[in-house]
Amino acid sequence: MPDQKRILVAPLNWGLGHATRCIPIIEALKKNGFEPIIASDGVALSLLQKEFPSLKSLELPSYKIEYAQKGKNFKLKMIWDSPKVLKAMAKEKKEIKRIVKKYSIDGIISDNRLGVYSKKVPCVFITHQLNVLSGNTTWLSSKMHQGIVKKFNACWVPDTAGKPNLTGRLGHLKKSKLDIKYLGPLSRFQKKELPKKYDLMVLLSGPEPQRGLLAKKLLKELKAFSGNVLFVKGKIEERQSSETMAIKNGQITICNFMQSEQLEEALNSSELVLSRSGYTTIMDLAKLEKKAFFIPTPGQYEQEYLAKRLDKKGIFPYAKQEEFQVGDLKRIRDYSGLNTMEKRVDYTSLFEAFSKVKENSEPTSTSLST
């Protein structure tokens, strides 16, 4: 289709959540006659390349985000790494300028990549954090974040505008001049009625070293679990691998990663889920109406807030990483889990954001073979 508009879709490489929630956006772009081009780095880029092997993909400068070894040092580590992040953002802005020109980009969708922005084309920012929780500096971090979002033509929040909602104060402002559109929860999965194959599914992701630290702890704890466990490490590697490990009364099947179709089937075939309290995971669990137990990433205010909020509402229990024991999983039976909060997204209306004519447009290269 020669008249297809090219939309650059660029998720942040912070675990897998930002990339996976872009999957339904990319699918919708394709169905609505757009040509998506993927841009990211690290495991986020690798995951989307595996999901969409036929799409053009581009590598952006890495923010090189790493968690602190100890949760109490999380904010200090973020402050310490901020010059590195700002330097990466500067490189990112320069790269986006080149990409927009070289590939004749007609619009940009940035999922939390602060430097993926251009004055030449309509730009949309996806976030579930209009308020960025950072302890006693929450007001400052939120205002700074909102100031960056304000540059974009629109802000898409994957949640409902009113109550009930999933994000609470994270995704809702009392007063705002931002052009905010609530999409409803986004998930790449569909609920299916399948026979139970696993008593427990462990689903991990997130930056190192915390992902690896939790994987090590859980594999040790789950030796005392009775039942069959599917353990997905969340390590995106060139080839998929799996192994089995015998436990008390059952076995653990350990996988490095799974793609969307496999994950959808595995989640629908699992009775319970054990995972981080990342927002994309919460949206997926709502779509699939699963019961789960959360272990928030130590020191990450957003995940801690979401886990505590859902625990208080009697929806999902949680435990701190250093305190979790396999016996805690019995608490799940006393919680309700989430019912689907599915909202039909009007993508036709949303994508009208890209109907704006490019400013100062110049003849550009349209070849995607380079």
Explain this structure:
With 370 residues, this protein is of the alpha/beta class. Helix content is 30%, strand content 17%. It contains ten helices and 13 strands. The protein is globular, with a radius of gyration of 20 Å.
Question: What's the SSE blueprint?
Answer:
Layout: E1 6-11, H1 17-20, H2 23-31, E2 35-40, H3 42-51, E3 57-59, H4 74-102, E4 107-111, E5 123-126, H5 138-149, E6 154-157, E7 180-182, E8 198-203, H6 210-221, E9 229-232, E10 242-247, E11 250-255, H7 260-268, E12 270-275, H8 279-288, E13 291-294, H9 301-312, H10 347-350
Parallel strand pairs: 1-2, 1-4, 2-3, 4-5, 5-6, 6-7, 8-9, 8-12, 9-11, 12-13
Antiparallel strand pairs: 10-11
Helix-strand category: alpha/beta
Mean pLDDT: 89
CATH architecture descriptor of the largest domain: 3-Layer(aba) Sandwich
Helix content: 25-40%
- Major beta sheet, strand line-up: 3-2-1-4-5-6-7
Radius of gyration: 20 Å
| Ends apart, CA distance between termini | 20 Å
User: According to CATH, what is the topology of the largest domain?
Assistant: Rossmann fold
How many domains? The number is 2
Q: Give the C-level CATH assignment of the largest domain.
A: Alpha Beta
The sequence of SSEs as H and E is: EHHEHEHEEHEEEHEEEHEHEHH
